[in-house]
Amino acid sequence: MSAAPHDFRMSVEAYLALDNASTDARYEYLDGRVLMMSGGSLQHSFISNNIVAFFVQVLRGSRCKIFNSDARVRLNETHYVYPDATISCSDRPQMNIQTIGEPIVVFEVLSPSTEAFDRGEKLRSYRACPSLQAVLLISQDQPVIDVVLRQSADIWTVKDYHSDDEIVLDAIGVTLPVAEIYREITFEASPPKNEVIPS
Predict the structure, then answer these.
(1) Picking from 2-16, 78-92, 140-154, which range would have the lowest pLDDT averaged per residue?
(2) Which of 1, 20, 43, 47 has the CA that lies 20 to 30 A from 138?
(3) Where are the alpha helices (DSSP H) in 4-162?
(4) How many angstroms separate the CA atoms of 120 and 21, rounded?
């Protein structure tokens, strides 16, 4: 899912009451701002499903669990978000039936309308979460994934991966082939550089 461009402000208590009571919409909360979530494309949905399907299998039997976009994630006292998928390895019980309190890896499938927001303000919120070790920003238009990895408390690195690459997620002991994220997805071929596109 992606955040709609319009937003409004309220207290965190009012936000939680709104989000918990809502049956037909979800809302993110960033420092007092409430952003209504909107649905994504079929491509977006398929990629999200591939992420969850892969990690359900590889994490089976481990203490780490994968959650889909129905799970609200608490980054800190004033930041609540809905990633497209979240992995938590916490030994402590989660905060409640709907909220994950200690994410370790999050996945965002980028939408054209929200990519700048996801790479900007939302990524800064992720990087401020003490438990988070990796953020995967996943293109839905081409097989490219930007992986943002925590190296220390304040230092992060960014590297892009393509269809034949493998992503090593040391925080959960998993190697993720990029091809698994894009399994059964066909992308439109780009025209050759010298080809004249008719107007």
Answers:
(1) 2-16
(2) 20
(3) 12-21, 42-58, 115-117, 123-127
(4) 29
DSSP state of 118: I
Q: List Cβ neighbours of 103 (8 Å cut-off, separation of 6 or more).
A: 73, 75, 83, 86, 87, 88, 129, 131, 132
Other beta carbons less than 10 A from residue 150's beta carbon? 20
31: left (phi over 0), alpha (psi -120 to 50) or beta: left
- Residue 97: is its pLDDT beyond 90? no
Residue at 119 is within a domain: yes
Bridging pattern class, strands 2-9 and 72-76: unpaired
Total domains in the chain come to 1
Dist. CA 198–CA 179, nearest whole Å: 33
Q: Is residue 167, in this structure, part of any structural domain at all?
A: yes
Q: Quick check: is 51 in a domain?
A: yes
Classify residue 80: in a domain, yes or no.
yes
Q: Higher confidence at residue 194 or residue 65? A: 65
pLDDT band at residue 37 under the 50/70/90 scheme: confident
CATH number, position 62: 3.90.1570.10
Domain residue limits at 160? 40-181
Say which residue, 179 or 112, is predicted with more confidence. Answer: 179
